[in-house]
């Protein structure tokens, strides 16, 4: 017979304790109670709990102290804070201390049940979820990052993921989602910089039919699409100020008002956000609202750039090459020792995304099964060897390039060359009846190089 899951309720008000015992009991939980901090610590020492609910104010201390105590000694036990209505500062402090979530008084039983359900699912998700092989790297920085992801996944607090372009901020957001209690719900990523300003409110919150020109039917917004799951706001710094105000209200009220609607709709969504920009500096410059910054930045998670974990480059490169090998008919090319050293010395301003692009190009253009330094087309690698990993990235010195001459029809030389390549390849394909192996031989290039050029020129 399965052991009943258990909860500890800590509150000095008998009425609240009885209400929570009744509600949790109906959900199939065995419930213990404590009226003060000392009793709660004693109860925790006697047995393991699947959930703890604690009031903010206790006769001999505070719920904050209990949250910190649980985080240090019983890290596998999710704990939620019960706060007075409108006491946002206490809720934020609780989340930063390691609380799973919070609920306000008077307690809304529907909200409480959802919170409890998330907490109970959390440990199950953590037990069943395998360690992700996608966030590669054995460096100390990456080990710390994975540990932090594991911790913040337990919470429902908003997480702000900072880092340069190409470091894998969306991957980190997906891992937080997958390792948390919302893994069974949707993960909805949205690039805030890719949505036109005049359509942003409709995209995020939805709209009603006839609310504006072109609104021919009701439309669900991205917040509603992420119901019960996670909404990832990528490049959140690109939000215009008027949308920052609306987003702040949604986070505070946990409800959205579709464009043209009279009433708000409740939403149960965890917010993760990211940007490659310095959000704190944008707040100082008045380009990002300070109140929204503190709301989405309850927990900050910094993803290190590739140049600060150079020892991970060979492992990541090997994984990328294995993936590319699945797309090639002629096997897996390998990096020469010199090419691997060159990659390890390169600062990668575009981070992992740039490494992927470099290797994809090298696989396509290299002759044989070995990728040499020349196949990588890295700029001035010899100047980069020995550069300190933590030094700020500086633009590479480059020789001044002359102005490109124009083609016969007035187009720039790169476009003219591309057009010539396209025409030459097209004629060769037709002459060889679209046999790519024969076409590559006729053109004097490798089969991989032909596939790369077909993809680049949009001729696939």
TrEMBL record:
What keyword terms does UniProt attach to this protein?
ATP-binding, DNA-binding, Nucleotide-binding, Phosphoprotein, Transcription, Transcription regulation
Q: Name one GO biological process term.
A: phosphorelay signal transduction system
PROSITE patterns registered for this protein in UniProt? RESPONSE_REGULATORY (PS50110), SIGMA54_INTERACT_1 (PS00675), SIGMA54_INTERACT_2 (PS00676), SIGMA54_INTERACT_3 (PS00688), SIGMA54_INTERACT_4 (PS50045)
PTM sites of type 4-aspartylphosphate: 55
Keyword Nucleotide-binding belongs to the record:
yes
List, for all copies, the residue spans of the domain called Sigma-54 factor interaction. Answer: 135-364
Alphabetized GO MF terms: ATP binding; sequence-specific DNA binding
Keyword Isomerase among UniProt keywords? no
Please give the InterPro entries that the UniProt record associates with this protein.
Answer: AAA+_ATPase, AAA_lid_NorR, CheY-like_superfamily, Homeodomain-like_sf, HTH_Fis, P-loop_NTPase, Sig_transdc_resp-reg_receiver, Sigma_54_int
Name of this protein: Sigma-54-dependent Fis family transcriptional regulator
């Amino acid at each position: 017979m399965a052991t009943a899951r258990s909860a500890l309720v800590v509150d000095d008000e008998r009425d609240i304790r009885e209400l929570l015992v009744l509600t949790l009991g109906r959900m199939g939980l065995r419930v213990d109670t404590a009226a003060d901090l000392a009793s709660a610590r004693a109860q925790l020492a006697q047995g393991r709990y699947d959930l703890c609910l604690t009031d903010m104010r206790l006769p001999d201390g505070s719920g904050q102290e209990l949250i910190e105590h649980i985080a240090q000694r019983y890290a596998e036990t999710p704990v939620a804070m019960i706060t007075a209505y409108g006491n946002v500062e206490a809720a934020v402090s609780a989340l930063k201390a390691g609380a799973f979530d919070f609920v306000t008084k008077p307690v809304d039983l529907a909200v409480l049940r959802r919170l409890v359900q998330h907490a109970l699912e959390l440990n199950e998700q953590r037990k069943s979820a395998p360690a992700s092989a996608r966030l590669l790297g054995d460096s100390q920085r990456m080990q710390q990052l994975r540990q932090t992801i594991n911790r913040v996944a337990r919470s429902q607090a908003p997480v702000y993921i900072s880092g340069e372009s190409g470091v894998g901020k969306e991957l980190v957001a997906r891992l937080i989602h997958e390792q948390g209690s919302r893994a069974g719900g949707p993960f909805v990523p949205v690039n805030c910089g890719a949505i036109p300003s005049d359509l942003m409110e409709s995209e995020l919150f939805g709209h009603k039919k006839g609310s504006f020109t072109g609104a021919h039917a009701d439309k669900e917004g991205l917040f509603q699409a992420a119901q019960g799951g996670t909404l990832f706001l990528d490049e959140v710094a690109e939000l215009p100020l008027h949308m920052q105000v609306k987003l702040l209200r949604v986070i505070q009220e946990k409800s959205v008002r579709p464009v043209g609607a009279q009433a708000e709709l409740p939403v149960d969504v965890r917010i993760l956000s990211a940007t490659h920009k310095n959000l704190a500096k944008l707040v100082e410059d008045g380009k990002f609202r300070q109140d929204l910054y503190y709301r989405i930045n309850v927990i900050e998670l910094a993803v290190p750039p590739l140049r600060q974990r150079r020892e991970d480059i060979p492992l990541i490169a090997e994984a990328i090459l294995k993936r590319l090998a699945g797309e090639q008919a002629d096997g897996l090319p390998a990096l020469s020792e010199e090419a691997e050293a060159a990659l390890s010395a390169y600062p990668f301003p575009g981070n992992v995304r740039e490494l992927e692009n470099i290797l994809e190009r090298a696989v396509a253009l290299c002759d044989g099964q070995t990728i040499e330094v020349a196949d990588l087309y890295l700029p001035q690698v010899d100047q980069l060897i020995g550069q300190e990993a933590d030094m700020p990235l500086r633009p590479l010195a480059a020789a001044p390039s002359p102005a490109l001459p124009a083609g016969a029809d007035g187009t720039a030389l790169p476009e003219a060359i591309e057009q010539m390549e396209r025409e030459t390849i097209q004629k060769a394909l037709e002459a060889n009846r679209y046999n790519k192996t024969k076409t590559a031989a006729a053109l004097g290039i490798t089969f991989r190089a032909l596939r790369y050029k077909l993809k680049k020129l949009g001729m696939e």
